[in-house]
Automatic annotation (TrEMBL), chain A:
SUPFAM superfamilies: Thioredoxin-like
The protein, known as: Monothiol glutaredoxin-5, mitochondrial
Gene Ontology terms describing biological process: [2Fe-2S] cluster assembly
Species the sequence originates in: Agrocybe chaxingu
GO MF annotation list: 2 iron, 2 sulfur cluster binding; disulfide oxidoreductase activity; metal ion binding
Region named Disordered: 142-163
CDD domains named in the record: GRX_PICOT_like (cd03028)
One Pfam family of this chain: Glutaredoxin
UniProtKB/TrEMBL annotation, chain B:
Species of the source: Cyclocybe aegerita
GO molecular function: 2 iron, 2 sulfur cluster binding
Entries under PANTHER family matching the protein: BOLA-LIKE PROTEIN 2 (PTHR12735:SF27), BOLA-LIKE PROTEIN-RELATED (PTHR12735)
Family stated for the protein in its record: Belongs to the BolA/IbaG family.
Gene Ontology cellular component list: cytosol; nucleus
Protein name: Bola-like protein
Length: 163, 86
């Protein structure tokens, strides 16, 4: 599931400070530059679904990222509606997105620019049926015929509960 | 640096009331990958995202040193229901 070789090379890159405690504190207090912030702001709105992951949908580099891709595929999310970013290819994005979302792990999923969660939350929402509703209400996947309501996505997103 | 189960447990129990806690080391012992199941009344009325943010925050220093961290968060009522189903 994990790639020890890759992992250790990244650790080396990040652990320049002598103490890991110091390193993590520096990371916690580091200020995300306005430029980086606005480029991430654009990135999370690039498509109705935006997934920050390790690797690519065809070649995920981590089991958690693979699970996120698989769940979205399972719901029939059209590739045109989804943008994925490989954080392993962009160390700045990798740390930037964690700060931006205030979320410590990858993958991260955004729906219409709004942070949904990581792998655990995606799996939980998939199992409870919330994910399907969220995707339908945001116009990412078509509502199943026979549904009473045919609310347009714009309105639906407003009344969506904050899950 | 590896994190041990006791450090995680302490950090959680220091911060919130815990009804039930399972911590599974998924790293075959090297201590950089954990999955937890946490049952607490402090999750009452909070969305899953809010609960996870809460746990992420109280384990901020530990998670920063891990490769992988996975969590399941329940209120005591939810957990009881879940146990009854299983």
């Amino acid at each position: 599931m994990f790639r020890p070789g890759l992992r250790s090379s990244f650790k080396l890159l990040h652990r320049t400070a002598p103490s890991t405690l110091v390193a993590s504190r520096l990371t916690a207090f580091r200020y995300l530059s306005q430029e980086a912030r606005s480029s991430i702001e654009r990135a999370v709105k690039a498509k109705p679904i935006v997934l920050f992951m390790k690797g690519t949908p065809d070649e995920p580099q981590c089991g958690f990222s693979r699970a996120a891709v698989q769940i979205l595929e399972l719901h029939g999310v059209h590739p045109e509606k989804m943008q994925t970013y490989n954080v392993l290819a962009d160390p700045e994005l990798r740390s930037g997105i964690k700060e931006f979302s205030e979320w410590p792990t990858i993958p991260q999923v955004y729906v219409n620019g709004e942070f949904v969660g990581g792998c655990d939350i995606l799996i939980g929402m998939h199992q409870s049926g919330e994910l399907e509703t969220l995707l339908e209400n945001n116009g990412v996947i078509p509502k199943i015929e026979g549904d009473a309501s045919s609310t347009p996505p714009e309105d639906a997103s407003k009344e969506k509960s904050s899950s | 640096m590896p994190i041990d189960v006791i450090a995680l447990e302490k950090a959680i129990k220091r911060a919130i009331p815990v009804t039930h806690l399972e911590i599974v080391d998924q790293s075959s012992g090297c201590g950089d990958s954990y999955a937890i199941v946490l049952v607490s009344e402090s999750f009452q009325g909070k969305s899953t995202l809010a609960r996870h943010r809460m746990v992420n925050d109280l384990l901020k220093d530990q998670i920063a040193q891990m490769h992988a961290f996975s969590q399941k968060t329940y209120t005591p009522e939810q957990y009881e229901k879940l146990q009854a189903q299983g």
